[in-house]
Amino acid sequence: MDMKKRINLELRNRSLAEIAELVLDNSRSADGEVEGLTDEFTELEFLSMVNVGLTSLSKLPSLPKLRKLELSDNNLSGSLETLSEKCPNLTYLNLSGNKIKELSNVEALQNLKSLQSLDLFNCEITSLEDYRESVFELLPQVTYLDGFDQEDNEAPDSEADDEDDDCEDGAGPTGDFDDEDDEDEDEDGSEGGEEEDEDEDDYAEEEEEEDQAGVQGQKRKRDVDDEGEDDDDDDDD
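== Acidic leucine-rich nuclear phosphoprotein 32 family member ==
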């Protein structure tokens, strides 16, 4: 499927300005250029164009809100100046599996002041002597290169970061657990109350039975007394 058709499919009857994430992986670019994307994608924050046959980014539109860009497994080479011009607020850039050979190819990324994570894995540039040290020196704003910082500490998982953000926003699991505990307490309280009610009912029934038994005993005693009096009267006769 070509890139334009894929974009139309991903829109799902939404306007371009509503799209915050767009995944075009494995679609096809007829001439190696970006197709179908326009500067009307004003809210786009995440764009993935993995393995689409790109050889140039010259037709990439202005995407001022774009934060994450996936461009792995394409045929990009030469300067990346277009990225700093069209996507000035990038924080994450994946260029792994492209034809980037020299430090001069990534020099233009110096203008991406917010860039924190850069991936050049499987690019020829990684075979250069002192590759990591040179890139960190060239791009001091970058914290993670190919998934690791200068001390070889692995980059945190982005999904875990998102979960942490949710917790900070008050949408974490703690509130749910509290609600569940309250529900459990309510259930326990209800059950306890029901048991107490049942015990009281049983006690009342026992008292009632004892009262009835006492009444019946007194009645039997009176009957016996009456029979005794009748016998005395017969004897007198």
